[in-house]
Design a protein that fits this description.
The chain is α+β, with helices and mostly antiparallel strands. 36% of the residues lie in helices and 25% in strands. The protein is built from six helices and six strands, in the order αααααββββαββ. A three-stranded antiparallel β-sheet has the order 1-2-5, with no helix packed on it. Strands 4-3-6 form a three-stranded antiparallel β-sheet. A hairpin with a 6-residue loop joins strand 1 and strand 2.
Amino acid sequence: ARAPHDLAQEQAPRDLPEDPAPEARDATDHEHDVARLDATYGQPPRKIHPVLHALGGVAAVALTALLGVQTAYLYRTEIARELPGLRPPLTEACARAGCTIPYPQDAERIAIEASDLQAEPGKPGRYLLHATLNNRAEYPQRWPHLELTLTDAGDNPMSRRVLAPAEWMNPAETAEAFPPRNAIELRLPFEVPGLAPTGYRIYAFYP
């Protein structure tokens, strides 16, 4: 038989682990909640340092400005055509950058509204061409080239000549471009020895 004190020791309740303190339980539960939210929705964005935030804003503004400059350069002709008032500042800015702003070349808006070919009296082979050239566009255009074709009685070409603006324009004309909604008169004397044309064709074009 066991001694009484041994039986008493066996019947004594064993020590149970102590419950964690309330603060520890709250911290553990919070960590579990955060982990679960992160797994479901991803981690929340980290706060950006104010200096980095400011640098990012400056970089965004610089990139936007650069994009605007590139766009203005690529479409400078179209911008100057649609907004003629912007041509002077655009031309000045482009000159500093080493580029130019060409004038539009819309031949369909250039019309020869009237023309007449006359032989000069007493001067065989010498003729005089009168024509009215009209820029029907709402914007200035580059001065066009003219092609003059002399024809025989069967409307067959006898002679063809291409005239650059400097060859047909009046020397008194000083405009850099053909003004919008404007008509000009041209008078062009020329000589074709040995030919007796009975007709002609003339049209404006851009090479």
